[in-house]
Q: What sequence folds into this?
């Protein structure tokens, strides 16, 4: 287990606790299975720390060869300069479900529950509900605090970069 894995697990736990608390008060919260709005409207390719990537690899390893082939094609489509908005390559386009949900990165766990208003990183659909008074008691979490904790886990790199290196390593390994 990498040395920074316990810190990532604790961060996930803290985020999951806050999300559960919000869902308990608002069982009709917009972020739920079947809503993939944020997954289809990413500002950029997700950035992951090495610890997040290590966890995500576990999820990728459990996928079928067809899903891996589809993800590989989606990653290649993103290329060096993806069109905006970016659609997450880990999203199953037929079910609008995350193929690696349990292993998803922090950005995915926190989106819709935390905000970085100065960067425009928050769910505009939830903001509209707040403005209409349907979620008038919402207190967004501060994503800057999450970013500070992630920074302690090391440098972040683009998902596409991690994935390309992983595929190259997997493809270049000689059979035993």
A:
């Amino acid at each position: 287990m990498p040395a920074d894995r316990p810190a990532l697990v604790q961060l996930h736990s803290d985020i999951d606790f806050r999300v559960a608390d919000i869902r308990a008060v608002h069982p009709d919260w917009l972020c739920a299975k079947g809503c993939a709005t944020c997954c289809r409207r990413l500002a950029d390719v997700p950035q992951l720390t090495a610890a997040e990537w290590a966890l995500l690899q576990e999820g990728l390893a459990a996928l079928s060869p067809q899903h891996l082939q589809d993800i590989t094609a989606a990653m290649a489509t993103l290329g060096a300069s993806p069109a905006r908005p970016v659609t997450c390559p880990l999203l199953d386009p037929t079910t609008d479900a995350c193929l690696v949900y349990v292993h998803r990165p922090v950005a995915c766990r926190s989106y819709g529950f935390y905000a970085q208003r100065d960067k425009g990183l928050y769910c505009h659909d939830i903001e509209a509900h707040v403005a209409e008074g349907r979620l008038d008691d919402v207190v967004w979490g501060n994503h800057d605090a999450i970013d500070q904790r992630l920074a302690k886990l090391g440098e972040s790199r683009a998902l596409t970069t991690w994935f390309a290196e992983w595929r190259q390593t997997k493809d270049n390994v000689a059979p035993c």
Observations:
- The beta strands are 47-49, 91-92, 97-98, 114-115, 141-142, 156-158.
- The chain has one domain: 5-168.
- Helices lie at 5-25, 37-40, 50-61, 65-78, 106-110, 124-131, 143-151, 159-172.
